[in-house]
Amino acid sequence: MKPVAVCAAAPEEDSDRRPLPPGWSSYTSPEGLRYYVNSCSKETTWRRPSPSAEAPRRALAPQNAAPYANGGHGSRKPAAPPEAAEVTLRKPPHLKQINCVTFPLPGEGPEQQLLKPNEWSYCDFFWTDKKDPQGTTSVAGFEVLLQKQLKGKQMQKEMSEFIHERIKIEEEYAKNLSKLSVSPLAAQEEGTLGEAWTQLKKSLHDEAEVHMKFSNKLHSEVEKPLLTFRGDNFKKDLKKYDHHIADLRKQLASRYAGVEKARKALADRQKDLEVKTQQLEIKLSNKTEEDIKKARRKSTQAGDDLMRCVDLYNQTQCKWFEEMVTTSMELEKLEVERIEWIQQHLRQYTTLRHETDMFNQSMVEPVDKLLQNVDPAKDRELWVKENNTGEVRPVDMSI
User: Fold this and answer.
1) Which of 103-107, 173-177, 274-278, 293-297 has the lowest mean pLDDT?
2) For position 6, what pLDDT does the model report?
3) What is the C-alpha separation between 116 and 328, in angstroms, rounded?
4) How far apart are CA 156 and CA 162, in angstroms?
């Protein structure tokens, strides 16, 4: 599909009640916007076609190139069956089938408009199948979206495991700080320096409690929400999406096989009619005109069958398109919710970390203040008063 960056024109309200020009039909996109489709040229537009719009030439059956650029619509009722001679077996030159899905050829027909311009929405960029790196198999575009969801679930799980490891570090750090705070080392230091040293050891105990609280909050406010967001039912819901879209693709493949079978049957009938007609003209056979009429009726019936199969195919592809748009936008919504959820709780991590730093800073401040007040002279005075052995000094001996 060849998308454009912006819509050619903004959609308008259809207040005009006059009949549309011949060959034009109006439909409503998944967003509730009205657009118009030319059943022959496959042109699509947001603007109501003018009465002077050119009437289309007769087509074999409704095709599905343009409508699938702007939004799904219900299949039309097939036109009255033409004579067998009018039915062409040549596939439309401006269309191609890839894995049973019909697409316009690059550069052919009107340029398709994005459903959600400028948003890089899932519903605009995952219509074709993607080959794997080895090029041996292909993956449906919808399967790529599902893989994105599963990868997001795995990334979310790994983030919770990372936070869990961070919690273990905090817990171990808190235990070591608490143990160190009761160490007897330098417990006999005295004076103002001894007060500062005692306060420093006490701050380790307080800091240990802060880090333990930090680890507990990390568990309840970050790790657990990341781990439990979208539980086991999430994968089951994804499988439901997968099976639903896969079933529609299978139905589409079956309808496509029916079209090809009907196309071959029509070719065989037309060839049989041509042979019998030639035989009758050169009188190489005793076939009667009734036999020719019978062959012509069979050829006409084969043409009718082909048109019916094409119409059923288009109905199925339209249903697949509509479900693809709806489901891909739902997956897009789920991805936005996942990212915003993770963003919210990782920001909570940074908030808790900042709070922990502030608490640690507040506990260091008393230690810093006592260290600033350390006075060697005062410490000497206090120590001397407590431990002096006498202030009377020795004198010289006399005879």
Assistant:
1) 274-278
2) 32
3) 12
4) 10
The confidence score (pLDDT) of residue 110 equals 79
Average pLDDT, the chain: 82
Distance CA 201, CA 181 (A): 5
Query: Quick one: pLDDT at residue 22?
Result: 80
DSSP 250-304: HHHHHHHHHHHHHHHHHHHHHHHHHHHHHHHHTT-S---HHHHHHHHHHHHHHHH
Collapsing DSSP to helix, strand or coil, 101 comes out as strand
Give residues with Cβ within 8 angstroms of 9, minimum separation 6.
45, 46, 47
- The CA dihedral of 176, 181, 184, 186, to the nearest 10 degrees, is 120
Whole-angstrom distance, CA of residue 142 vs CA of residue 139: 8
Q: Give the C-alpha separation, 19 to 22, whole Å.
A: 9
Q: How far is CA 103 from CA 2, 26, 69, 93, 212, in A?
A: 10, 21, 10, 11, 61
Tell me if 65 sits within 8 A of 105, measured CB to CB: no
Per-residue pLDDT for 76 more than 60? no
Kindly report, residue by residue over 182-196, the tens digit of the pLDDT.
999 999 999 999 999
Other CB atoms closer than 10 Å to residue 222's CB: what's the count?
25
Token pair listed for 375: 């006075």
Q: Residue 30 in contact with residue 16, Cβ under 8 Å?
A: no
Among 123-137, 152-166, 352-366, 368-382, where is mean pLDDT lowest?
123-137
Q: How far apart are CA 157 and CA 228, in angstroms?
A: 9
> Would you state the pLDDT for residue 276?
79
Q: Is the dihedral of CA 241, 233, 346, 172 positive or negative?
A: negative
Q: Determine the Cα–Cα distance for residues 29 and 36; give it in Å rounded to an integer.
A: 10
Structure tokens at 113: 């408009």
Q: Residue 21: pLDDT band by 50, 70, 90 thresholds?
A: confident
- CA 359, distance to chain mean position in Å, is 41
Backbone angles phi, psi at 238, to 5 degrees: -65, -40
The C-alpha atoms of residue 144 and residue 330 are separated, in whole angstroms, by 14
Spell out the alpha helix ranges (H) of 101-232: 141-181, 191-218, 224-228
